[in-house]
Amino acid sequence: MGKLLTTVKVTGDVRSGIMDYARDKYPNEMILLLRGRLDGGVAYVESLVIPPFAAGSRTRSLFNQWALPPDPTLIGTVHSHPSGIARPSTADLLYSYGAVIMILGFPADLKAFDRNGKYLEVVIEG
Ligand SMILES: [Zn+2]
């Protein structure tokens, strides 16, 4: 069993990429895949991937998980909440993909949670 996830580290570029993409899709939700690695309780997010068959409405963002090839470098997702409230919904937790659920409370409140909805610390570096 790996160490319990406590922290998500993202680069400044990844953070601005998330905010730019959310602004493009506003007032709809957007969803992106997080590429990186899990190491010693820390998730390192190194880049963003546009998921296959993504669709965003004002209240839901979806993609086809089964269209993805198995890829251990995809460690979670980030999606936006146009409402500005960066908390996972029940559906967000039920249909999560990967270890990390990041939510951008539009326009700039970036939060992270594990699959149980537990709050993870977000650290911006680089
Ligand atoms: Zn959500």
Please give a structural write-up.
The protein is an alpha/beta fold and 126 residues long. The chain has a single domain, classed as Cytidine Deaminase, domain 2, CATH 3.40.140. It is 15% helix and 40% strand. The protein is built from two helices and nine strands. The protein has helices at 12-25, 90-94, and strands at 7-10, 31-39, 42-49, 55-56, 61-62, 74-81, 100-105, 109-113, 119-124. The strands form two sheets. The protein has a seven-stranded mixed beta barrel. The chain is globular, with a radius of gyration of 13 Å. The protein starts with 6 loop residues before the first strand and ends with a strand. 33% of the residues are buried. Bound molecules: zinc ion. Zinc ion (ZN) binds next to strand 6.
Mind sketching the topology for me?
Layout: E1 7-10, H1 12-25, E2 31-39, E3 42-49, E4 55-56, E5 61-62, E6 74-81, H2 90-94, E7 100-105, E8 109-113, E9 119-124
Parallel strand pairs: 1-3, 1-9, 6-7
Antiparallel strand pairs: 2-3, 2-6, 4-5, 7-8, 8-9
Bound molecules: zinc ion.
The N- and C-terminal alpha carbons lie at a distance of 29 Å
What ligand molecules are bound, each kind once?
Answer: zinc ion
**Portion in beta strands:** 35-45%
Low-confidence stretches: none
* Radius of gyration from CA coordinates: 13 Å
Q: What is the average per-residue confidence, as pLDDT, rounded to a whole number? A: 92
User: CATH class, anyone?
Assistant: Alpha Beta
The helix-and-strand class reads alpha/beta
Largest sheet: 7 strands, mixed, barrel
Number of beta-strand segments? 9
